[in-house]
Amino acid sequence: MKVRTSLLLLSVAFVTLIVALGLVTFHTSNLINREIRESMVASEIMRHVFELNIVTHEYSAHHEERMRQQWLIKYDSLGKTLKQSREQEIHPEHLSVLESITSNYESLGDFFSRLQANLAKRERLIEENRPEAEINLTLASERRLTAQGLMSSQRIASEAFQLSAVIQRIIARVQQRTNSIFLFSVVGFVVLSFYISLRTIRAVTEPLNELVKGAQIIGKGDLKHRVDVKTKSEIGE
Asked: Does domain 15-190 sit in CATH 1.20.120.1730?
């Protein structure tokens, strides 16, 4: 192998490694940024759920119109966050969790609507002076619906934590994969460089040794000695 060719191969290998590492870094950065965005969405979901839990407890205790309006606002905000997250590019591992969160979100809205209807029914029964037994039935229904709504809300919070944990695992996996690719690339470059350098050194030193030996023989008086350097490098030419 010619010295010029060896140096060219080293240069090509180095440039290839730099380009490959740049592409890997760019791709990894995009993946991590996407996971960070989804992690922020999971945190936003948890925030809305916790606020919704507080308002649900307050509304179930006082049944004030202001609390009802706040609940509707919080519920609508959570719905918008879920809709935005579904419209984004979603990792397959996130999709099932997000679908479960959406299902519980819809159940929570259904429970609240039924709770509203139950409260309106109790007020009507009270206005009509209906028997206390009928009114007590609405109270029992109210407690049941409130408990079911809170359970749905807690499931949403638990699934939001699960979503965040999945995202963190994916980020760690991507980083580990990137580190492995980087390490293997560097090791591969070192091995390739060592091989090419060794071939280059041999291509230079072996012919030089032959020349030195030939010069020594000629120097001792054997003027008919012919130096025969068999190499494909520039020295052989």
From this structure: yes
